Amino acid sequence: MKKLKRLLAPLMVICICLAGTANALNIRLVKIGDSKTSDRSEPNEPSIAVNPLNNNEIVIGANAGIYYCSKDGGLTWTDGVLSGTFSPDDDPIVIADDNGSFYYFHQVAGMSVIKCHRKNTIDDPWTAGSSTARNGTTQSNRDFASFDPLSKNLYVTWSQYDRLNSTSPLDSSIVNFSRSEDQGSTWSPSVRVSVKGGDSGGGCQSTHGACNTIGPNGEVYVSWWGPGCLMYFNASTDQGKTWLAKDITN
């Protein structure tokens, strides 16, 4: 996997379109091997968010626990690594709310929980991080998050595996959901989204790659791939408390 990431991500760049022109700039954030620490030598799986109140403020997250911040529309950047009593791992997701706060989600080593860190303004430090997706010995993978401007809630979805990469027919996977009503400080107990479960192998027979978004009236929509290598969909109209009784699939 690491060799593949090195081949696919020799450079980490951001493309900036200049207002009022047809030109675009490619700004290099970091090149593999030129970082000062090994933690930042191979950034990959980038996620980007823009402050809706100030489009010049941009935050990017990348593996593992790396962040980049710009206050001039992406022309210049500062960077750092998240800190805390945990080890950041894969699947960084960065989003912004309508108050200009940024949120950084990621799984931790061992995949026991999904962490959420908040930066109240781009100049503030990240919080130590709250946890969701804790459920016994299961493993949490492929998190995704969104912000609902109507309820002001944060939503996160992820795949829960009995044991990731297991070939045992006794191990399975499902898609779960959690909600925060206090800017990511605490999270609701997880709720199962996927009616149909998958295997625990991590491929297209697993319930994997769940993404969520918000509808015009605060609906929560979630899609993922699953058994049969098909795309699945489910929805909630009560902020994720209940879901459709049957998955919709193609």
Brief description of this entry?
The protein is mostly beta strands and about 250 residues long.
Give a description of the structure.
This protein is an all-beta fold. It has one domain: Neuraminidase (6 Propeller), CATH 2.120.10.10. The protein contains one helix and 19 strands. The strands form five sheets. Strands 11, 12, 13, 14 and 15 form a five-stranded antiparallel sheet that branches. The longest helix is centred in the N-terminal third of the chain and has 7 residues, at 2-8. The protein is globular, with a radius of gyration of 18 Å. Mean pLDDT is 88; it is low at 1-11.
Set out the fold topology.
Layout: H1 2-8, E1 11-17, E2 24-31, E3 47-50, E4 58-62, E5 66-70, E6 78-81, E7 93-96, E8 102-107, E9 114-119, E10 130-132, E11 139-147, E12 154-161, E13 172-180, E14 191-192, E15 198-199, E16 208-214, E17 220-226, E18 230-236, E19 248-249
Antiparallel strand pairs: 1-2, 3-4, 4-5, 5-6, 7-8, 8-9, 9-10, 11-12, 12-13, 13-14, 13-15, 16-17, 17-18, 18-19
Which descriptors apply to this entry?
250 residues, mainly beta, Neuraminidase, 5-stranded antiparallel beta sheet, 1 helix, 19 strands, 3% helix, disordered N terminus
The outline comes out as globular
Task: Report the uncertain regions.
Answer: 1-11
Count of runs of 4 or more consecutive helical residues: 1
The total beta strand count reads: 19
Largest sheet: 5 strands, antiparallel
What name does CATH use for the topology?
Answer: Neuraminidase
**Strand content of the residues, in percent?**
35-45%
- What's the CATH architecture? 6 Propeller
Order of helices and strands: HEEEEEEEEEEEEEEEEEEE
Helix/strand/pairing category: mainly beta
User: What is the CATH domain class?
Assistant: Mainly Beta
